[in-house]
Amino acid sequence: MWRVTLKAFAVLLLAWFFGNFVLGWFQQNNVKTQTDHKEQPSTTTESPADQSCFCHLTGVLDDCFCDVESIDVFNNFKIYPRIKRLTEKDYFRYYRVNLKRPCPFWPDDAQCAIKDCHVEPCPESKIPVGIKSGNYNKYTQAANTMPDMTDCEQAKELGAINSTLSNQTKKAFADWARHDDAQDHFCELDDETSPDAEYVDLLLNPERFTGYKGPSAWRVWNSIYEENCFKPRSVYRPLNPLAPSRGDDDAGEGFYNWLEGLCLEKRVFYRLISGLHSSINLHLCAEYLLDEGWGRSVWGPNVQEFRQRFDTAETKGEGTRRLKNLYFLYLIELRALYKVAPYFERAFVNLYTGNVQEDSATKELLLQIFNEIRAFPMHFDEKSMFAGHKTEAKILKEEFRLHFKNISRIMDCVGCSKCRLWGKMQTQGLGTALKILFSEKEIQNLPEHSPSKGFQLTRPEIVALINGFARLSTSIHQLHNFRLLLKENR
After folding, report:
1. How far apart are the first and last CA of the chain?
2. 20, 166, 462, 487 - which has most CB atoms within 10 Å?
């Protein structure tokens, strides 16, 4: 009997110890879970005031099926490092531009007197001989086997191509030149033969805040938005400082209701211009003059300037729309690069500077970028544009082209030389991208071993296309940096 009692007591004792252990474990983990939930906000929640620039910058973009997050990852890890290296190559570093063309729309403002507005042209002696010799040689294999040229006379002889090409190829180039002269461009192109046209080293004249602002700068953007974005004067663009005040109700809802009622093409046009404007503003915020000491200027990101241009509260909700339009523009130019890849992949197309090894490395890097672009799964579908009745679509396309061409002319009204340089270059880059998107059939029919009469790109167009896209890539990369800075400033 006592043995049974002892066993029962032992079982009860064991059950008591086990129960206490389970109860203690449960309570301890329950307390830890509650503690974790209490601590979670303090470690991950961001102050609305600090992150209001980004709180709605997420998800799918309007008029396409791509999301912001996918573009961030794709650009910052795959495209930006490569496109940055590409623009440092000699072929894309030197850009020939005429910064002395008069403004065709109003009397020229006094040129910006701030020293940072100045553009330092590149001496002819510093320009690679293959670039000085003309556009033809970027296509010739013979050019790469010619002896090195050292003086201007030899460069001119090389550029004439009389002794390096067959008669058949000369005829192809002549046909190309005639076609190029007659071709419809989206930009007002500079005359490269003008005595006022000069080569500029883009690396030595970086885009950044020069101090150029106020009525002169606003008049340029006002003219672009108010007169060239298919907008009637009765519809006010939000936060336009040059438009008459309409009170507290002027938050832009009327404008966006009107915009949504437009056809896709006109809506896209506005978003392209807004995206370009946003990208330029981002560059100015990221490369701001922070300090000017004894002969040494310090440039860097200005968070306050960024908030002023993109913060939801500061811009009455406009900031997010502006940034989304930047992403939209990125997708448009990305699509153009996707479409034009076959043009550059032909074996005889060389990005010619005269340095064989440098030229080979430049083209290889460009082709690597094209391969990355092909792998991107969410490209913009431009086939939905100008897809209606043929006659109406043709009229609308021509109107689209003329509006954009007019905007390229307005860039000659920018009073700051450095701002004008980068404005003209980025506008020409976008114009070249549009030219590519509207030339799909011509690109598909390109011959493999000779220039095509149907589609050609000049060197200034190529340089502007790549540098313009690189500026958009840089903007998205800079957005990531501003996001980190805002977190640090909490």
Report:
1. 74
2. 462
